[in-house]
Amino acid sequence: MATTESSSVARGRLLTRGVLARGVASGVVAWLAGYLLAYVARADAVAETLRGVGFVSELLGGAAVPTWKGVAWLFGNAHFVDVRFPTPFGGTQAVNVLTGDGVAALLVVPALVLAVAGALAAVARAGDLVERTTAGAAVALGYLPMWGLTVALGTHAVGDTEAAIALDPVTGILVAGVVYPVVSGALGGAVTTKLI
Known about the structure:
Structural class: alpha+beta
Strand order of the largest sheet: 2-1-4-3
Number of strands: 4
Strand content: 5-15%
Helix content: 55-70%
Order of helices and strands: HHHEEHHHEEH
């Protein structure tokens, strides 16, 4: 009976302040590292692609699309988040801007960066598989707000209309902000039980 009570008390402490703080910090750093890798690897190609998109935007009275937004869209595509482009008849079309050489490598970046972040968050947590997996999954606490900002700031108005080019907000938040960090971070945290 005493063993059951002590294990339930230990389980109640899975999300301590330290675990939460490491999760937030690791999640933010993972997003920054992933975005930076995408920017370094593909900014020139994105800028070239955006010249055509920018022409359409400028034709409709809007500004050219900045490269950092295009890289944010690309980074979203690496998480399987579509970019929504306005159509001439008032609707939107889902587009994947992740094309060309190096696509497969870029698809691996989010999961790999998040697994490393989850492992780093879990290493400081001495404990069993459940505790380290939970600590690894806590990277979502920092990654989710970064994706909220990415979705909000990555929107590009097209002309004087309400039309905009933007990451799909639902998959941007749920898939990129929650599913990716929870799964990849938890796997990274779980791996530490075998390594350390």
